[in-house]
UniProtKB/TrEMBL annotation:
Gene3D superfamilies: 2-enoyl-CoA Hydratase, Chain A, domain 1. One of its GO terms (molecular function) is methylcrotonoyl-CoA carboxylase activity. Residues 8-269 form the CoA carboxyltransferase N-terminal domain. PANTHER family: ACETYL, PROPIONYL, PYRUVATE, AND GLUTACONYL CARBOXYLASE-RELATED (PTHR22855), METHYLCROTONOYL-COA CARBOXYLASE BETA CHAIN, MITOCHONDRIAL (PTHR22855:SF13). One of its GO terms (cellular component) is methylcrotonoyl-CoA carboxylase complex. This is Acyl-CoA carboxylase subunit beta. Pfam families: Carboxyl_trans. Residues 276-532 form the CoA carboxyltransferase C-terminal domain. The lineage of its organism: Bacteria, Pseudomonadati, Bacteroidota, Cytophagia, Cytophagales.
Amino acid sequence: MNNLENPNGVYLELIQQLIEKTATVKQGGGEQRIAKEHEKGKLTARERIGYLLDKGNDFLEIGLFAADGMYQEEGGCPSAGVVAGIGQVSGRMCVIVANDATVKAGAWFPMTAKKNLRAQEIAMENRLPIIYLVDSAGVFLPMQNEIFPDKEHFGRQFRNNAKMSSMGIVQVAAIMGSCVAGGAYLPIMSDEALIVDKTGSIFLAGSYLVKAAIGENVDNETLGGATTHCEISGVTDNKYESDEECLDAIKRIFDTLGTTERAGFDRKTPQSPAVASEKVFEIFPVDRAKPYDMHQVLETLVDAGSFDEYKPSYGQTLVCGTARIDGWAVGMLANQRKMVKTKKGEVQMGGVIYSDSADKAARFIMNCNQRKIPLVFIQDVSGFMVGSRAEHGGIIKDGAKMVNAMANAVVPKFTVIIGNSYGAGNYAMCGKAYDPRLIFSWPTAQMAVMSGASAAKTLLQIKVASLKKEGKKITPEDEAQLLKEITEKYEEELSPYYAAARLWVDAVVSPLETRGMISTGIEAANHAPIKDRFNVGVIQT
């Protein structure tokens, strides 16, 4: 990657930043904490996952940058203290969730709960088996009010345990460290619960709390160790002498799983793109003010010769068409970023959704649902067109039609944000609120209600007006300083890492990883047959 030729070098800096941030986050709680786990005879969360995975199969990690830059007053919480993603175990695609005991002893922060729920959501949507590798001290008590009682908080995972069981989704849990209080229900609500002797323990209340609550003196091993639960209570199914033995048992379980029904998405022999993927660094400008032809970007993503454009001369600010990615048939919707001219002589701005492009997109989405083709959205969108001409032309009506068709799509949707993702454009192009099976950002992405420059000026006007109401005199120098401060804060919030920290996107990825991630996502989605009928309900015409 360091050998890539890039005229301005900015891409290399962005990719290098991604590489360095990835390496840092994967260290979890740091080398000393990792060494302490090894001293106990335990593997780390990432080592456990690596041991489980089939050799030669990649792990599509979800939420690597979850909680990035958050909880600094608590010392930080890299990856939200849990590692999650999609991989292959004994030839079966599955979701794996592993508490990282090197980060605050695997304690649950608010973002830990959100990330665990996202992993369960992926398993449920794609009907994938799920493996839980449990090693957690329980809820991080100083923040219990942000994680305990609400619908999308800690308890939702146990509801999901029950729902997945009723759906026939296989759940296997291994207790490989602490498993305390309410968290004890997660492995025991799974189909099979394994435990590692001497290092694994599970109880509703530890020895100190038992002493305080009922005055009983008992050690943790007697209270809830492997022998207790495998030979006395029957809470766990089998115990193992080491992490490796326990993980081997999971492999054997997965080796016996029967095959399941497939969705039947079409796949042919994969072909490399017509334009080498590395060329995207020359085609796609880092400077978001510069125009470019989205067709050229697509040529670096789709299989050579596979793109069949839909209505190429109509609604040109949205490029739509069927193609193949790594052999999989897909329907592509991508924002065109160069200026285009309609047959009526109207000049349309790149990155903006107009009435004709929204109308085209709605029809194309409906066609893909009719033909059972997964949808891929490539976002570089500034929003919908504004002004009297657009309003008189019914832009809201046409935008609503596009959103309706996209929101009701029954085929799986995947979203890649490569540049701008602003306002209602984010929604129409299948932002997180619209249930994409996976959503990724390139390091060049920005997500917000509007661009940094526009937002900063608007916020400045509000701030100045507020200060003037208080009777304060604002000089031009004061305004300049305020604008600088507002701009810096807003620009930080535009960062793809800011979005990834809050799980608005599943990952920040290099452009070179995009094809593989979409392919893995469709392979996962193929495990879930489409049962619902496509129905848009009442649609604006």
